[in-house]
Design a protein that fits this description.
The structure is a single chain. By secondary structure, the protein is an all-alpha fold. Helices cover 74% and strands 0% of the residues. It is built from 10 helices and no strands. It is globular, with a radius of gyration of 20 Å. The two termini are 30 Å apart.
Length: 285
């Protein structure tokens, strides 16, 4: 539910990230991106890649929350670690690491779908470059995945951008589960009540995971939007190019819509999670 509602903001964030590091005349601001998507693609343009994302998120969230919960239970029962903060950080780190292997291929297809420029499909000429990822146009997510596998191979699907995905996911979910865990144990949880607390704390946890790791996310997008068959820039080269083009500010292009998306998505995620866990916990006692 959260993915579907917040997805247009994710598309706007990806569009901003893809243009980051380019010359000023080639960069578009938030309003320009909204207008361009609406004029060229209509409402459906804001939901490119949503199908594979929603299917993938079911598996991704299952892995992340299951690993986090199981690790916490194991540490409570077997570890000599006294700090709850450290336990939550370890559980979140492991959840981020293991889920990365599913996140990377799902987001590779999502990014390719969101980055495509459908307005260019009607403007191809003899100088058209088929290696330009943004010039490739796909009818749906599955056609995109099929094209990717055919032209770049299975290895690209699962490993193109995996390293930078792991670098992003490990701290992201350490911050995510620690933030939510601390808030859920605070006095604010009682004041907000069982229904409002997961919504508010989920939104704040979403911000806690994205703000510090957003620079890694923009580098990851620029890695995965490249055709893996060509000679590509690695994460370090992309980082250097971004800094040269716009300084530290370039690493936060598209952050605003990403934060809106994070608040909506993770508020819904934790609200549903707490409802389900409240139903399951009495059964397991």
């Amino acid at each position: 539910i959260g993915v579907g509602i917040a997805y247009p903001f994710d598309t706007l964030s990806t569009k901003a990230q893809v243009s980051s590091g380019k010359s000023a005349e080639k960069q578009a601001n938030l309003i320009q991106n909204i207008k361009t998507i609406w004029i060229n693609e209509g409402i459906s343009g804001f939901f490119e890649g949503v199908c594979v994302t929603m299917i993938g998120q079911a598996a991704i969230k299952s892995i992340q929350f299951a690993v986090n919960e199981i690790t916490l239970l194991y540490l409570e029962a077997n570890a000599t670690i006294q700090s709850n903060l450290l336990k939550m950080a370890i559980a979140g780190t492991l959840a981020g690491l293991l889920s990365s292997f599913v996140v990377s291929p799902i987001e590779l297809v999502k990014i390719r779908m969101q980055a495509q420029n459908k307005s260019s499909s009607n403007k191809k000429d003899d100088n058209h470059d088929d290696s330009d990822i943004s010039s490739q146009v796909y009818r749906n997510d599955f056609e995109c995945a099929k094209y990717l596998i055919k032209h770049e191979g299975w290895r690209a699907l699962f490993f193109h951008g995996l390293g930078i995905t792991i670098i992003r996911e490990i701290p992201s979910f350490a911050f995510y589960f620690v933030a939510y865990g601390l808030l859920a144990r605070s006095s604010f949880a009682v004041q907000l009540g069982n229904h409002a607390a997961p919504l508010v704390f989920g939104a704040l946890a979403g911000w806690a995971m994205w703000i510090p790791t957003y620079p890694a996310d923009i580098v990851k997008t620029l890695v995965q939007v490249q055709d893996s068959k060509n000679k590509n820039m690695g994460p370090m080269q992309i980082t250097a190019r971004l800094y040269r083009s716009g300084g530290a500010k370039a690493f936060f292009d598209g952050l605003e819509p990403k934060l809106v998306r994070a608040a909506v998505k993770h508020a819904a995620t934790f609200w549903v999670y707490e409802i389900v866990m409240n139903m399951l916990r009495p059964i397991s006692v």
